[in-house]
Write a structure and sequence with these properties.
With 131 residues, this protein is α+β, with helices and mostly antiparallel strands. The chain has three helices and eight strands; from the N terminus they run ααββββββαββ.
């Protein structure tokens, strides 16, 4: 595991550490080609420089966010961003994490991607990457 992400996990409360560790394990096992790092103060995984999935501690709990998740049509992802294609789910206990649901979203995240990597070049316009 990326040492910066390990430090992020260790900085959380004990219950949030369990959530973060479980999410990291599922992501690392299923997005083998991804690069992971702390980005904007949170763990994020990238494919070819494009942000795919990440998590962060927020008031509502630990938020697992998929940058292109709005296009996944997944009941699991029930919190949508307003301006972009992101979708999220919040966890408050590790027992709430259904590994198969997260794995299914990770599979979709490899196939369904919006081009966040070049959003600045396109002056805020997102286009879907054809896979």
């Amino acid at each position: 595991m990326n040492s910066d992400i390990q430090q992020y996990i260790e900085s959380q409360t004990e219950s949030d550490q369990k959530i973060c560790l479980k999410l990291s394990e599922i992501i690392n096992e299923n997005l083998i080609e991804a690069e992971s790092k702390i980005w904007h103060a949170h763990p994020v995984w990238f494919l070819d420089g494009n942000p795919i999935v990440g998590y962060s501690k927020q008031k509502k709990g630990v938020r697992l966010m998929f940058w292109s998740g709005k296009s996944f049509n997944e009941e699991l992802l029930n919190v949508y961003g307003g301006k972009f294609q992101d979708a999220s789910v919040f966890y408050n206990d590790v027992s709430e994490i259904n590994t198969e649901d997260v794995k299914r979203c990770l599979e979709k995240s490899e196939k369904i991607q919006w081009d966040y990597k070049n959003i600045v070049k396109r002056k805020g316009q997102l286009i879907q990457i054809k896979k």
